[in-house]
Design goal:
This protein has 441 residues and is α+β, with helices and mostly antiparallel strands. The chain has 11 helices and 6 strands. It is found in: Cell outer membrane.
Length: 441
Amino acid sequence: MQKPLIAVLLASAFSLNAQAADLIQVYQQALANDATYASARAAAAAGRERITQGRAGLLPTVGVTGDVTKNNSDFTAWNNSPLLGGGSNLRTNEVQVTLQQPLFRWDRWETYQQSKLQQAISEAQFAQAQQDLITRVAQAYFDVLAAQDTLESTRAQKVAVTEQLASAKRNFEVGTQTITDTHEAQAAYDLVVSQEIAAVNDLETKKTALQAIIGTAPATLATLRTGVNLTAPQPINVDQWVSAAENQNYAVTVAQLQLESAKRDISKNRAGHYPTVDLVASSLHRDVNGQLAQSGKSNSNSIGIQYSIPIFSGFAVTSRVRESIALEDKARNDLEANRRNAALVARQSFLGVNSGLAQVKALEAAEVSSNSALESNKLGYQVGVRINIDVLNAQRQLYQTRTDLARARYNTILAGLKLKAAAGSLREEDLQPINALLQQP
C-alpha cells in the first residue's frame, strides 16, 4: 500500500519541478536578485536621509566642553627670605555648556529646501529604476523565447530538409531525378545545420543575459500561446501619450527637480553676502582647588545675540554665484532635452505597437499562405510538376514566417511596455495581462 503513495508523491514532486516559470515569477526573482535594482533601492534609502540632514542646520546645537588644569609654581626672594618666597599648587576644573540657535542663516534655509528636492529626486530615480527593471526583465524574457522559437524552427526545418535530401537521393538512385536535385538538397541541409549552430549559441547568450538579471540560471520558461490577440494601446490618440510623457516621465521629473535645486543653489550662494545672526547661550562652572585663598567655585551664565557681517571674500562669492547661474541654465536645457526625448520615445513606442499589430495580422495571413504553398509544392513534386528546390524554398519560407510572426508578437508586447514607461505609468500590475497570454510548454 505504501508503494503507490510513494509513486504519487514522487510524480507530484517531479511535476512541480517541471513547472515552467512565467513572467511574474521571473520578475519576482529579479526583484530579489538584480544588482542594478538593489543599488537603486539602496540609493533611495540613502536619499530619504537628506531632509533630516538639511533640517539639522536650522536646529540648535548643544555642546559640552571642559578641561582639567593643574598649575604648580614656586617663588623665591633675592635675599632667600622665607617671608618673601612662596608658590601655588592649583587644580582647576571647568565645564561649559553652550547652545547656539541660528536666527538668520539664509544659506542653511536654502540647503534645507534643497534637501527636500534631493529626496524627491532619489525617489523619482528609484521609480525609474523600477520601471527599467520591468522592461529589462520583459526584454530578456522574450529574447529567450524568440531564440527558442528560432532554434525550434531551425530544427524543424532541418528535419524537413533531411527528409527531402533522403528523397532526392532515392529518386536519383532509381533514375527519376538528376544529381542536381541531390546537390540542392545537400546544400540546403548544410545551410540549416550552420543555422542550427548559430541558433544554439544565440539561445545560450540570451539565457546568460536573463541570468545576469535574476541571479540564477533561468528554468524552463512559459511560452506565448498560439494565436493570441494583442490589443491596441489605450488611449488611441498619440498626442495624449506624448503629453503624458512630457509631464510624467520620471527622467523629466528628475530634470524638473534638478532645475529647481539649481535655482535654490543661486540663492544659497548669494547668501555669502548676507549677515548671519545666532542666539548664543552658555553656562560655565569653575572649580579651583589649591591654597585656601585661591580655592573656590564659580558659576557664570550668559545669553546673547551673535552676528557676523561679511565684507570682502576675494570675489569668491561673486564667482560662485556666476557658476550657479550657468549650472541653472544647464539644468534648464537638460530638462528640455529630457522632455523631447520622452516625447520621441513615446511616439516611437506608440507607432511600434500599432505597426506591430498590423505586422502580426499580415504575418498570420502569410503563415496560412505559406503553409498552403508548401502543401501545393509537395503535391506538385510528387506528380512531377515541381522540383526539389521548390519544396525546399517553400519549407524555408514557412518556417521563416512563423519565426517572424512570433518575434513580431514579442516586439509588440515590449513596445506597449516601453510606451507606458515613457508616459511614467508602467507598474508591476501591467505584467499581469501579459502573463495571462503565456502557457506551460
